[in-house]
Amino acid sequence: MKPETIRIAKILGIAFSAAILAACASNGNSTDDRNSPISISGKGSAATGVNKYLWAASLETLDFMPIFTADPIGGLIITDWYAPAQNERLKANVYILDTSLRADALRVSVFKQNLTQSGWVDTPVNPATAREIENAILTRARQLRLNSIS
Question: Any alpha helices (H) in the chain, and if so which ranges?
């Protein structure tokens, strides 16, 4: 296995372990909020967690790119450069801004560089690219939430 594949598998394992542990937690309340955040304090505050479905869906959607850093508490995923072609590379940042499963709780930024004789040069990215990634993440997050209800 490639080192980046192993690293992604470890990150996904940690994220899913955190989601499983959060699902097992009980605060004595019989109501079940299926849209609750992952939280280290157990209180579900926005300062300590993000929506678990958006988090898992973001990692799944970007699994083809090497993950540089992933912060499940702050809701930030930064990928390393991914080269779909020899003279081109892409990088993405995902920001989960809220504990709710809503479109405005997610922001994706995509960066592109092309290799020239002087080195890597920033190139404009079609704004639709980030929207398509956001839509893919939101669709997958909704699927994960529906699967958890069943």
Answer: 3-24, 52-61, 127-149
